[in-house]
Specification:
Layout lengths: L1 H21 L4 E5 L2 E5 L6 E4 L9 H6 L9 H10 L9 H11 L6 H18 L7 H12 L7 H15 L1 H29 L13
Antiparallel strand pairs: 1-2, 1-3
Length: 210
């Protein structure tokens, strides 16, 4: 009976110690001349620290937490990239070369008119009109070079004009107006040619009476 009671007392003590550890209690123990802290009850002199004293910085940490920056470095860089790029335009030397080429006697009237339009568009760009990138003017240069090739000059002009229409809405309106005028002229010319090829029959003259 005595052994059973002793075993029960030891079991209860072990359960109490385990419950203290699970609760997160901290014990301040006197070990010789040193103070040590433990999650177990002191073997000699010591005391359990109140749970409240262990939570003194919780509120302060929540209040004094520094505010997060508005945007990280990567986010700021992404926002900068999203802004529209600076307007890219031909330089004065390139524009002068374009003017010289526009006056070449080897170009067709359509090619000359296109080259003169490219000079005007380049100068408009330098004045801040439109929103061009470097790739846009590469299309223009390819179209300028193609004006000596009769087979591909018209298609090249068309590609360059489409590029200008996308980069500069004002120039796009002008290009649309010119194209509409050209279409009307072609239609009028087609009708005139058709009349020449198929003249209307003359009305029969009435027979004169005798």
């Amino acid at each position: 009976m005595f052994k059973a009671c002793l075993f029960l007392t030891a079991a209860v003590a072990a359960a109490l110690i385990a419950s203290h550890a699970m609760a997160g209690e901290v014990w301040k123990c006197q070990v010789g001349e040193q103070i040590k802290y433990s999650d177990r009850p002191c073997q000699a002199a010591g005391e359990a620290l109140p749970a409240r004293s262990l939570q003194g910085n919780v509120v302060d940490a929540a209040v004094k937490r520094p505010a997060a920056p508005a945007a990280s470095g990567a986010t700021a860089a992404a926002l900068a990239d999203a802004r529209p790029p600076a307007n890219v335009c031909p330089g004065e030397l390139e524009i002068s070369a374009m003017e010289t080429r526009a006056g070449s006697i080897s170009l067709s009237p359509e090619a000359k008119a296109f080259m003169q339009d490219e000079v005007r568009r380049a100068r408009q760009c330098r004045k801040g009109q439109g929103r061009y990138i470097a790739a846009d003017w590469e299309i223009s240069r390819q179209a300028q070079a193609a004006q000596s090739n009769l087979s591909g000059a018209q298609d090249a002009r068309r590609r360059a004009e489409d590029m200008h229409s996308a980069a500069d809405p004002s120039e796009g309106d002008r290009i649309s107006s010119v194209r509409e005028q050209e279409r009307a002229q072609r239609e009028a010319q087609r009708r005139q040619d058709q009349r020449l090829l198929n003249p209307s029959p003359r009305p029969a003259m009435p027979a004169s009476g005798r």
